[in-house]
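Appendix B, Record 12. Input sequence as logged:
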Amino acid sequence: MERRSPFGEMADDHTALMVDMGDLQGTIRRLVQPDIAALDSGKQIVDMLDSFQWRLRVHFRREEEGVFPEAHRMVSEGAQGADVFGRFFGEEAEDDMTAHATLARRTAEMIEIATRVADAGAPDQASARRLLALVDLTANLLQRHADKEDRLIFPMIEKSLTPQQVGEVRDRLRKIPTERDLGPPGEEHLGQLGV
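Logged structural output:
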C-alpha cells in the first residue's frame, strides 16, 4: 500500500480545519438567535474554539518546521523553481506568517468573547455579532491561505523533491506531536507567530 504524501497530509489538515470552522460558524450563528440559544452556548463555543486553536497551532508548526525547511533549502541551493520559491519566501512568506498570526489572534479573541458569554450565562447581541464577524473573517482567511498552499506552494515543493527528500519531510512531520496527551504544541513556536 502506497503511503500518503506528506503534502497530501498537510492538505488534509486544511480540510479538517475548514470542517471545524464550518461547525464553529453554524454554532455561532445559532448563538445570534437568542430565542434558541442555550445557556451553555458560550461554553460549547469555548470548547470548540479551544479544540480548533489546538489544531491550528499544530498545523502551523507542521508547516513551519516540517514543510517550509525544504523550500528554504531549495532557495539556498538554487534548485529548479527556486526563483518562484524565492519570491514566495521573499514576498509571500511574510504574508503567510501574517496569516498565521492573524488566524491565531482572531481565534484567541473569539475564545475571550465566548468565555465572557459562558460566564454571563447568556449571549448579548454585541458579543454574538462580534463572534459571527470574527468567525466569518477567520473562515475566509483560512480558506484563502489553504488554497494558496494546496494549489500552488505544496505541489511546487513536492514536484521539486526527490523521494528521499519527501521522506525527510514525512519524518519531520511525524516528530511533531498532534495529540493533546502528547503535550502542548510548543509555546516557543507561538512566539514566532507574534501571538
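The chain has one domain: 6-174.
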